[in-house]
Amino acid sequence: xxxxxxxxxxxxxxxxxxxxxxxxxxxxxxxxxxxxxxxxxxxxxxxxxxxxxxxxxxxxxxxxxxxxxxxxxxxxxxxxxxxxxxxxxxxxxxxxxxxxxxxxxxxxxxxxxxxxxxxxxxxxxxxxxxxxxxxxxxxxxxxxxxxxxxxxxxxxxxxxxxxxxxxxxxxxxxxxxxxxxxxxxxxxxxxxxxxxxxxxxxxxxxxxxxxxxxxxxxxxxxxxxxxxxxxxxxxxxxxxxxxxxxxxxxxxxxxxxxxxxxxxxxxxxxxxxxxxxxxxx
Length: 281
Fold this sequence. Notes:
The chain is α/β, with parallel strands linked by helices. It has three domains: 6-49, lambda repressor-like DNA-binding domains (434 Repressor (Amino-terminal Domain)), CATH 1.10.260.40; 63-153 and 236-263, Rossmann fold; 155-233, no CATH class. Helices cover 35% and strands 18% of the residues. The protein contains nine helices and eleven strands. Strands 2-1-3-4-5-10 form a six-stranded parallel sheet, with helices on both faces. It has a five-stranded mixed sheet with strand order 6-7-8-9-11. Helix 8 (185-190) links the parallel strand 6 and strand 7. Helix 5 (76-89) packs parallel to helix 9. The longest helix is centred in the last third of the chain and has 16 residues, at 236-251. This is Transcriptional regulator. Keywords: DNA-binding, Transcription, Transcription regulation.
């Protein structure tokens, strides 16, 4: 049986060859209806394309990388799902990897991603000192290397919510190796004159502190640590959607604007109420 050509797919879909080429590589300028029609015709005819050759000719591989510090936390599924939903609409594939928590591991993962010719990166974890970003990148966290777009936490909003929860009490901040909100230490340093039982905050601890129980645990959405009555919640799925959209803007030439985006955290109680609903203070 003769190999199906792009011209045959174009004829079956009622478009020209250029439109077929753009649709098959996920060009966002092509409408959803045309995308669907072209892909349906390609599947019906059994058309096979060489993805690597297509990527070389279009200067896009059609793959972006998502790098996480670890795949073990329960919230990673929601983050990955958010990113995947956005990329699927653009016909872009997702390559996922994790690092071991140190700079050497980050360098290894970065080299592997580069060797796979990813069009861009979404990075959540420690960066490799001395490394540069040669592709569009979105960094989740409080620091981004030059050339990357950053999605961080609305620091002032979180500080305000924690002050409200403390309600004049002293604040005791415990920082662990996986801390996400190190700037909360500012509150502990600024309340020297406060009195009463302290508001104990545990952030990223790898094991509990004997004889101490936290009132506030800093953990991502979907998990409770150490039976704390309050936790900081960051919406993992929404973070995934936002980072995916920003990266696609960079990859397809519209630029990362703005270069820094902040997401609003919430303090949420174990019974499901939040500060945003007026339940703190």
